[in-house]
Amino acid sequence: MRGVRRIPAADFYTGVKRNALEADELITAVHLPTEHRTAEQFSKVGTRNAMVIAVCSLAVVIRDGYAGVAIGSAAPTPRRVAAAEQFLTTELPWDTRAPLADSMKRRFAGLVADATEPIDDVRGSAQYRTHALGVLARRALTWAWDDYRGSAAACA
Ligand SMILES: Cc1cc2nc3c(=O)[nH]c(=O)nc-3n(C[C@H](O)[C@H](O)[C@H](O)COP(=O)(O)OP(=O)(O)OC[C@H]3O[C@@H](n4cnc5c(N)ncnc54)[C@H](O)[C@@H]3O)c2cc1C
């Protein structure tokens, strides 16, 4: 028994089908921040609506002055999209909470697509995954920002 350790999610995934878990370790908990006024969206492309393995997936989190963005099934590991996070943190209209311009959504979609590093496999082609993640990014950002604007207004 070597005790307990915590590891950031970003450091856990080390490669295709590989992670930082040692042979004698078990995952006993996943710690998530529980903050007020957080808007979160998770979108996945699959071949049907019911439970099915992802062709690609995207998560967006927006909370006061902070944005988190991650993609799945479009690179050797799930990955954060630092450029997209930085873009949202800097460019979202935090003060006015105005609806987002289409140009901003397109720029965000481009940053997400640029972060993909997919391959063709039985689930889908690399080209499709990159395209689909751009579409998911535009939609998920719109939904998350609208949720954030609504919850921020309710708390004001
Ligand atoms: C049967 C089943 C049903 C599921 N149902 C759901 C569901 O209903 N809803 C849901 O949200 N989740 C579901 N999941 C889980 C979801 O599919 C996974 O959480 C998700 O696929 C994990 O993404 P990942 O990026 O961690 O790994 P993976 O999806 O395994 O992605 C790894 C990627 O690495 C790529 N790759 C391999 N080698 C290389 C290389 N050398 N260079 C670059 N890329 C490479 C592969 O093509 C693959 O796209 C299901 C999973 C299974 C197995």
Structure explained in plain terms:
By secondary structure, the chain is α+β, with helices and mostly antiparallel strands. It has one domain: Enolase-like, domain 1. It has helices spanning 9-12, 82-91, 102-114, 126-155; strands spanning 13-15, 18-19, 39-45, 56-63, 66-72, 79-80. It has a four-stranded antiparallel sheet. A two-stranded antiparallel ribbon has the order 1-2. The radius of gyration is 17 Å and the shape is globular. Bound molecules: flavin-adenine dinucleotide.
- End-to-end gap: 50 Å
Q: How many helical stretches?
A: 4
From the coordinates shown, what is the CATH architecture? 2-Layer Sandwich
Q: Uncertain segments of ≥5 residues (pLDDT<50)?
A: none
CATH first level:
Alpha Beta
The CATH superfamily bears the name: CO dehydrogenase flavoprotein, C-terminal domain
Bound molecules: flavin-adenine dinucleotide
What is the makeup of the main sheet?
4 strands, antiparallel
**SSE topology string:** HEEEEEEHHH
Classify the fold: give the CATH topology.
Enolase-like, domain 1
Strand order of the largest sheet: 3-4-5-6
Helix amount, in percent? 25-40%
Q: How big is the Rg?
A: 17 Å
Q: Report the average pLDDT across residues.
A: 94
Quaternary class: single chain
How much beta, percentage-wise?
A: 15-25%
Tertiary shape: globular
Structural class: alpha+beta
* Count of DSSP strands: 6
